[in-house]
Amino acid sequence: MMDVAQQIWQNPELGYLETETAALLISELEGHGFLTEAGVGDMPTAFVARRGSGDGPVIAILAEMDALPGFSQAAVPHEEAVAGLSSGHACGHHLFGAGSVAAAIALADYAEAQGLAGEVRLYGTPAEEGGSGKAYLARSGALDDVDAVLHWHPGGSNSASQGASLSNVSAKFRYRGQAAHAALAPDQGRSALDALEATTFMINLMREHVPQEARIHYVISNGGAAPNVVPDFAELYLYVRHQDPAVVADIYARIQRAAEGAAMGTETEVEFERISGVYSVLPNDTLGRLMDQNLRAATPIEWDADETAFARELQATLRKQPDISEAFEIEDYDFGGVGYYSSDVGDVSWIAPTVGLSTATFVPGTPQHSWQAVAAGGMSIGHKGTAYAARALAATGAELLQTPELIDQAKAEFLNAWGEGFEYEALVGDRMPPLDYRVE
């Protein structure tokens, strides 16, 4: 399976453009007896692969696959772009996808050999990097009959701790006014930029009157072209974040009303495009403890002399340089913390009990979205961490198939965390997936 990861690493594809990557993963799964369905959730590169019987639990494994723009890098411990490449797997999604496929195949083989009832599913999930691919999968109902969801993520250490993330809505507000010469005829103009600035003024006043854990950040992505022209177009690109998706929805609605008021006051018009929206991750302690046990039971990572030398040379380029031994150790299990990030895994975690882990596919201290992550992910350090994750995922899935009461416990915890009267309503709204968001 590391050959598959390497092929994806050598041909990085951006969100919703992962055509060859998805085809490669589908081919591997079909070669191991999985039935596949492509184009799920109105996304051409999203797919579901199924193997097993329909009279037992459904265990799903997520597989991300998109690259990031601007991270061309060779598998060497110094910064060196690859000729002809402008993108790279700076978040390790080539490892994520290949490792998850390996785990799904191993789990399905084990279930068949042991005569276990149940179905193993692999979900190919595109465009995690800002495209909210899993939110569209969740909205489509493709996960509604799943009993438990497993996932993992490349990193610089090994951990099965479970915590929440932040829900997030991102949107573009586009203002349209009337252009005019800013000196000769300013009275004939109606400034789209004025409307935008009035909106941001109100947003900044609003910060006093939202929950203190909320985050609102924005950029002016278009503020006009020349100072002596009254801008007839302006664009604001903003994010709203909070752990509670209901709070995010409320704050975003208030900002929309502020923008409508700003447009009214400046005699301009405003339109809204919701770019993405994801739920916070809903952690599950039952599944987390099970994953932690299987991570500790799996054959650990070991580096040879060449890998250690590579790691030390690469680590010299990092701002933080923890001990390299972190790649071989497992962090103490923790439950219930909050990470100030957003992930579309969140939507999945509100549909079915979900658990994840991270393994050391990068040199300790490596930030994700860095050339150092691309470098280590393209050689054996990344491959060994991926194999470690796949073993833990497959073992966890096997225990769930063999011990249905664990699934019952996870579901009871999951429903309790939902709270009274919860109904999933996607924060992406009713828009279609933004299939061209990475197209220049």
UniProtKB/TrEMBL annotation:
InterPro entries: Amidohydrolase, Aminobenzoyl-glu_utiliz_pB, Bact_exopeptidase_dim_dom, Peptidase_M20, Peptidase_M20/M20A_hydrolases, Peptidase_M20_dimer. Keywords: Hydrolase. GO terms for molecular function: dipeptidase activity; para-aminobenzoyl-glutamate hydrolase activity. Residues 169-260 form the Peptidase M20 dimerisation domain. The keyword Cytoplasm does not apply. SUPFAM superfamilies: Bacterial exopeptidase dimerisation domain (SSF55031), Zn-dependent exopeptidases (SSF53187). It holds the Pfam family M20_dimer. GO terms for cellular component: cytoplasm. GO terms for biological process: folic acid catabolic process. This is Amidohydrolase. It comes from Paracoccus jeotgali.
